[in-house]
From TrEMBL:
Sequence similarity: Belongs to the catalase family. HPII subfamily.
Record-linked CDD domains: GATase1_catalase (cd03132)
Top enzyme class: oxidoreductase
Chain segments annotated as coiled-coil in the UniProt record: none
Domain of life: Bacteria
Reactions the enzyme catalyzes: 2 H2O2 = O2 + 2 H2O
Protein name, UniProt field: Catalase
Residue intervals of the Catalase core domain: 81-469
Positions with biased composition (Basic and acidic residues): 9-23
The protein's required cofactors: heme
EC number(s) from the headed UniProt entry: 1.11.1.6
UniProtKB keywords: Heme, Hydrogen peroxide, Iron, Metal-binding, Oxidoreductase, Peroxidase
Region named Disordered: 1-73
Length: 747
């Protein structure tokens, strides 16, 4: 047992996931026996949720603590029943007239079983269909208590939360690592009702007015004739739209940057995007933008990794989130606000706060922390929780109000509306995951899937028959009486909304050289996939207005002439926009260890990785248990299953010969050609290309050489002392990648 609690938990999970002891219980699940080879003959009750899992809190449809589990209607008891509780002796044979006779229509069990199955699917979300979620808790620092009366932001108040992360364009079954915006939606179950902060990992949006949402989504979704490509922006309709509709330029350059391919949901920022209005106890107001800052830092994949992962592990982000929580390495974010005076013109330093295509640089308005969110439990049931959770920008609590951002106005309508078709009626708030933890006393009645049993006879007001209840709540939610600047009615927008290029240029100028290289490569890749030449040329005209280097490099990549076009003035860069150049914690990072002949050295180093709060995965030619002294050490990845994209760094305990035995020893039977197993050289050359730290001892240098890694390459450490090698690797990992391996002419 090691001392670091995260490492201890990681250890337990690794045991639970991969090293089941065939004779004993399942680690971490006391009393639960491992499955037997034969089908069990004795019935037993359903298994309890695993220690890392938690269902929705148990509240009634009217928001009262229910005293029972929210899963009351889920599996219970040992014997099969119908939906109405009648026990069944057989569910494997339809009711027939004779052994080879026809199936009878009167078979109510057959019909119930098949009918229910036929209706298992609900419409997927029209956007953000692919997602993963977790439960957690938000604890407020109290720093926002002077500017908002929201009870959940008062000092040390703890509020349960449920967070769903998502991609935007892909279907429910699409890959996690595609280039796209990520959704970051948080449901706060506050004592004053539900507050939903429905944000993204990109602080701006493609459009300034919600009326254009169907346009941008129709352009981004697969082409309507062949329904391809899935979960991609690299196609004609997307680039046709954004090249014509230049207010999308800012969001698009963020998508083309490393922000479009996060390393993990745990390593993304979140943004409320719009400006919101906070209301204090005394009625005073401030304008704010919400930010989530991940404790693990903001990190991304590189594009080739993202593409490989689409095939190797399409569930990469979903798995990473669940594994981290199961391991006890709970992801954390600080919630912060940028604050602006609530002036009549609703601008700050000349930036229109009602324009969702604009940011306010953090250097102009620092993000002030107001609380900490910790995700600490996985859902018990994906459908009941992650699929049925319903977010809505209109789920607000006293002390938080919306502004007149026309993008937000449309969202205030759309979210409620979409749940009605997605969840089958107006009572979706009564689904367990959506139930408030505050008493509900509305006058909404009946409707599809009503589960509340409302007492009383007078769901109307005024009434005398129910004693006049419900009364208006004097301390309830009030919209701020902000004076509206009147003007002519019309389909209008302010002149400031015409500035589409100054902030894309600000973003570009704020990136480090290697990040700029990635942006160039992303535009070049995406536009190379566009069929129509005119669309590419038009998009180059857009790029010319951002920056001549960006435009020139992409044009060269496409083999097209550089168009005329001049960027605007140089804004002061915002260093906060760059992800590179800082040092971050390495807890929760995944370290592959290619086993070598000295299994004890592997054991020691594996333990040191665990003690550092990271996740070691032992890689060997075949599965099984490594020899040596001490506890048995199970191989978690065979050479056949290991792929570099799963690891943040790789340690090599020797150069395994082709077809080596379980220790990787060189004396094994001959097999694949070459001095080192080609699956290991692929592992190492990819990891090297993706700028991951590498370390090795024994004859690891032979493996590095076989992988084409030049001697003395940055971030590649070899030596005789495995502990010192690991130390170097951890130092490199703190910077996320060995950025020097991407030399840039833009430096
Ligand atoms: Fe939206 C889902 C975020 C603009 C209409 N949106 C959805 C989700 C996120 C966002 C994170 C997934 C929620 C979940 O996990 O269930 N959307 C945003 C952000 C926007 C934005 C940050 C701009 C700042 N959205 C936007 C507009 C409209 C919508 C302008 C419509 C006018 N969004 C929807 C929707 C969805 C949705 C159709 C689909 C499924 C759902 O709501 O529940 O209502």
């Amino acid at each position: 047992e090691h001392t670091n609690p995260v490492a201890r938990a990681v250890d337990k999970v690794i045991d639970a996931v991969t090293d089941r002891d065939p004779s004993g219980e399942i680690p971490g699940r006391p009393g639960v026996e491992p499955p037997s080879l034969a089908e069990p003959v004795e019935p037993r009750g359903p298994l309890p949720p695993k220690p890392d899992q938690r269902g929705p809190d148990a509240f009634t449809a009217t928001g009262q603590p229910s005293g029972e589990t929210a899963a009351a209607r889920a599996q219970g008891g040992e014997f099969l029943t119908t939906a109405t509780g009648t026990r069944l002796p057989d569910t494997d044979h339809s009711l027939k007239a004779g052994v080879r006779g026809p199936v009878l229509l009167r078979d109510h069990h057959l019909r119930e079983k098949i009918t229910h199955f036929d209706h298992e699917r609900i419409p997927e979300r029209v956007v953000h269909a692919r997602g993963a979620a977790a439960h957690g808790v938000f604890r407020a620092y109290g720093t926002a208590a002077t500017v908002t009366r929201a009870a959940f932001l008062a000092k040390n108040v703890e509020t349960p939360v449920f967070v769903r992360f998502s991609t935007v364009l892909g279907s429910r079954g699409s890959a996690d690592t595609v280039r796209d915006t990520r959704g970051f939606a948080t449901k706060f179950y506050t004592s004053e009702g539900i507050f939903d902060l429905v944000g993204n990992n990109i602080p701006v949006f493609f459009i300034q007015d919600a009326i254009k949402f169907p346009d941008v989504i129709h352009a981004g979704k697969p082409h309507p004739d062949r329904e391809i490509p899935q979960a991609q922006s690299a196609h004609d309709t997307f680039w046709d739209f954004v090249s014509l509709h230049t207010e999308a330029t800012h969001h698009t350059i963020w998508n083309m940057s490393d922000r479009g391919i996060p390393r993990s949901f745990r390593m993304m920022e979140g943004f409320g995007v719009h400006t919101f209005r906070l209301v204090a106890e005394d009625g005073g107001t401030v304008l704010v933008k919400f930010h989530w800052k991940p404790k693990a830092g903001v990190h991304s994949l590189v594009w080739e990794e993202a593409q490989l992962l689409g095939g190797v592990d399409p569930d990469f982000h979903r798995r990473d989130l669940a594994d981290a929580i199961e391991a006890g390495a709970f992801p954390e974010w600080e919630l912060g606000v940028q604050m602006f005076p609530d002036t009549q013109d609703q601008t700050y330093e000349g930036i229109d706060l009602l324009d969702s295509t604009k940011i306010v640089p953090e250097e102009l308005a620092p993000v002030q922390p107001v609380g900490l969110m910790t995700l600490n439990a996985n859902p018990v049931n994906f459908f009941a929780e992650t699929e049925q959770v319903a977010f809505h920008t209109g789920h607000l609590v006293p002390g938080i109000d919306v502004t007149d951002d026309p993008l937000l106005a449309g969202r205030m309508f759309s979210y409620l509306d979409t749940q009605i078709s997605r969840l089958g009626g107006p009572n979706f708030d009564q689904l367990p995951i959506n139930r408030p933890h505050a008493p509900v006393n509305d006058m909404l009645r009946d409707g599809m899937h009503q589960t509340a049993v409302h007492a009383g006879v007078a769901p109307y007001r005024p009434n005398s028959l129910d004693g006049g209840c419900p009364f208006h709540a004097p301390d309830g939610y009030v919209e701020v009486p902000f004076p509206v600047a009147a003007g002519p009615r019309g389909r209008l927008a302010p002149a400031s909304y015409d500035d589409h290029f100054s902030q894309p240029r600000l973003f570009w100028l704020s990136l480090s050289p290697v990040e700029k290289e990635h942006v160039i490569a992303a535009y070049t890749f995406e536009l190379s996939k566009v069929f129509e030449q005119t669309i590419k040329e038009r998009q180059l005209q857009v790029l010319a207005r951002i920056d001549p280097v960006l435009c020139g490099e992409v044009a060269a990549g496409l083999g097209l002439p550089v168009p005329e076009g001049v960027p605007g003035a140089d804004p002061a860069p915002s260093p906060a926009l760059s992800q590179v150049g800082r040092t971050w914690p390495v807890a929760g990072r995944v370290i592959g260890i290619v086993a070598g002949p000295d299994a004890d050295a592997v054991r020691t180093i594996r333990q040191a990785v665990l003690d550092g709060g990271m996740v070691p995965l032992v890689i060997a030619p075949t599965g099984g248990v490594l020899p040596g002294t001490g506890e048995p050490m199970t191989v978690q990845r065979t050479f056949a299953a290991a792929r570099s994209v799963e690891f943040d760094a790789i340690l090599v305990a020797g150069a395994p010969a082709p077809g080596a035995d379980a220790t990787g020893a060189r004396d094994a039977k001959a097999g694949l050609p070459g001095p080192v197993d080609p699956r290991v050289t692929l592992l190492l050359s990819e990891a090297y290309r993706h700028a991951k730290p590498l370390g090795g001892w024994g004859d690891a240098e032979d493996a590095f050489a076989a992988a084409g890694i030049p001697p003395g390459a940055p971030g590649v450490t070899s030596g005789d002392d495995p502990a010192a090698v690991l130390g170097q690797v951890i130092t490199s990992l703190g910077g996320h990648r060995v950025w020097e391996r991407f030399p840039s002419a833009l430096a």
